[in-house]
Design a protein that fits this description.
Layout lengths: L3 E4 L5 H12 L3 E5 L4 H14 L4 E4 L8 H13 L4 E4 L14 H29 L2 E6 L12 H20 L5 E8 L5 H14 L3 H12 L8 H12 L10 E4 L7
Bound molecules: nicotinamide-adenine-dinucleotide (NAD).
Nicotinamide-adenine-dinucleotide binds next to helix 1 and helix 6.
Length: about 260
């Protein structure tokens, strides 16, 4: 029987890269993200071509706290089991705290904290019944350290580290591991979109944002590659990795070692 993975926010960037990686390992893949039907069809075809056994898609907006409940239950009814849950969906907003809109703050916490909580809450009973589960939260270097003008994001990512550790302790004897991966900067639409806002907030050019803000944070002076994140995710999903739980894996070019 094929293993199954649900990856939130897998229509783009890191999540899409993870979906392709698991497809290559013949998983059943539940794709999720804000994408139109044509894009979903294209993604489904790509994942089948990469080797996925079955592919299903979801386009729920995770600002709705009940969305993840529906996504998890649909995935379980389509695939019969859920081996790997990857909470990945997220977005960035850059603004000084006094200009940071409350509405944006609430949406960030809904998508990046409440949705993972609901997804985990709804998945755990099935994982317990199976006697196996792997939960991976895609966090960020911003789950460990802060940067100015990102109060909503940094707060949400720090919360995810706490959630990872707490749930790992609760599930420690159930063969369900819970870990977080904390990437540094990866060149995805999320990063591209924040370059103009960061330039405005810091009053510098967009090129300066790349050179003096983004790549400056990372001693390697280069973007993190998605396949580096996928390799850690794969390792964590190995059934032999039973003792690695409640851990936080940095893939950040040395950013948080400083
Ligand atoms: P991306 O913009 O390429 O993809 C984001 C995904 O999340 C998309 O599939 C999008 O549809 C989905 N999404 C966003 N808002 C949503 C909503 N309201 N409801 C449902 N789905 C929603 O971004 P990415 O860079 O691949 O980011 C993926 C994850 O990795 C995020 O959690 C992000 O915080 C984290 N991360 C990214 C970087 C980076 O440099 N790109 C670094 C560290 C952590």
């Amino acid at each position: 029987m094929s293993q199954t993975v649900l990856i939130t926010g897998s229509t783009s960037g890191i999540g899409y890269g993870l979906a392709r990686h698991f497809a290559e390992q013949q998983f059943n893949v539940a794709v999720h993200g804000l994408a139109d039907p044509a894009t979903m069809q294209e993604i489904t075809a790509t994942l089948h071509a990469a080797g996925a056994n079955k592919v299903i898609t979801h386009d729920h907006d995770l600002a709705d706290p009940t969305a993840c409940k529906q996504i998890v239950h649909d995935t379980l009814s389509s695939f019969g089991r859920l081996d790997v849950l990857i909470n990945n969906a997220g977005f960035q907003h850059v603004a000084p705290v006094e200009e940071f809109a409350l509405e944006t703050w609430l949406k960030m916490q809904a998508v990046m904290v409440t949705a993972p909580f609901v997804a985990i809450k709804e998945t755990v009973p099935a994982m317990k019944q199976q006697g196996f589960g792997r939960i991976i939260n895609i966090c960020s270097a911003h789950g460990l350290v802060a940067s100015p003008y990102k109060v909503g994001y940094v707060t949400a990512k720090h919360a995810i580290v706490g959630m990872t550790k707490t749930v790992a302790l609760e599930l420690a004897r159930d063969n369900i591991t819970v870990n977080a991966i904390c990437p540094g900067y990866v060149r995805t639409p999320l990063v591209d979109a924040q370059i103009p806002a960061t330039a405005k907030a810091r009053n510098i050019s967009e090129q300066d944002v790349i050179e003096t803000v983004i790549l400056k944070a990372q001693p390697t002076q280069s973007f993190v590659q998605i396949n580096e994140i996928a390799r850690i995710a794969s390792m964590l999903c190995d059934p032999a990795m039973v003792s690695t739980t409640g851990s936080v894996f940095s893939v950040d070019g040395g950013w948080t070692a400083q």
